[in-house]
Amino acid sequence: MVGAPIALQETFKTIIKSSRKIYEANNDKTNLMYIDMLEKMDSTSAEYYSYAFAHAMQNGFYSPKKKSDEAKAISSNASKDPNFQYVSKMTIDAPQGFLKNENYTSIDLHADLTSMVKAKFKIYGLYGKEDGLYSVDQVNRLQDIIGVEQMLYLDNCSHSVFIDQQKQFIDFLKSKLK
Q1: What would you measure as the largest C-alpha separation in the chain, in angstroms?
Q2: Are 140 and 110 contacting, i.e. CB atoms less than 8 angstroms apart?
Q3: Are 149 and 176 within 8 A, CB to CB?
Q4: What's the CA dihedral at 134, 172, 144, 141 to 10 degrees?
Q5: 111 three-class SS
Q6: Is pTM beyond 0.70 here?
Q7: Per-residue pLDDT averaged across 116-134, rounded?
Q8: Of 130, 6, 105, nearest to 50 (Cα)?
Q9: Which listed residue, 22, 134, 148, 150, has the most CB atoms within 10 A of its CB?
Q10: How far is the C-alpha of 81 from the C-alpha of 97, rounded, in Å?
Q11: What SS3 state is found at 19?
């Protein structure tokens, strides 16, 4: 599981709480008003998750505060690929289709993961400490389920673990997938 959601309602609460702190620190009354409105919305709606993720993007929750030289090079090289336009452009069709066909906003995988571990499935978690989508408590709860040895929680790393800390990401996978 690489920066994967475990319980999206917890993720939304983390985003909102962290965004609120930023807006309060900046005395940003406009965005505080939007957060107040967001907290009153149906938390299972497409609008709710769209606005929550918009605040996450606006507040830099998907990127580490300081990108490593390796991450900068990977991003630069990727942007030169002619197919990059398809990766970098998101339309509303995919999220709406996903929402229509899945209970996306209410995903909670804790029970499933616990069952899988009991059934001896190997599950690994790779997360960045600067990933603003997940609180430390969320990552610790996952670690409690899958085990300390199965978890890699990286410094100077956000949501794109495989880019932000690619060497550590690959080394961890090599060590586990022998």
Answers
A1: 52
A2: no
A3: no
A4: 0
A5: helix
A6: yes
A7: 96
A8: 105
A9: 134
A10: 27
A11: helix
Q: How far lies 150's CA from each of 7, 81, 117, in Å?
A: 19, 33, 11
Nearest to 105 by CA among 153, 38, 160, 161: 38
Average confidence (pLDDT) over 159-171? 94
Q: Choose the weakest-confidence range: 11-25, 74-88, 105-119.
A: 74-88
If one counts every other C-beta atom within 10 angstroms of the C-beta of residue 169, the result is 20
Please compute the mean of the pLDDT values over residues 127-150 and round it to a whole number.
96
Q: Which helix (H) or strand (E) holds 128?
A: strand 125-128
| Cβ atoms of residues 135 and 10 within 8 Å | yes
Sequence-separated (6 or more) residues with CB below 8 Å from residue 3 = 126, 127, 128, 131, 133, 134, 159, 160, 161
Asked if residues 48 and 41 have their Cβ atoms less than 8 Å apart, the reply is yes
Here the tokens at position 78 are 């990727």
Confidence of residue 37 (pLDDT cuts 50, 70, 90): very high
Res. 97 pLDDT band, cuts 50 70 90: low
Rounded Cα gap, residues 48 and 40, in angstroms: 9
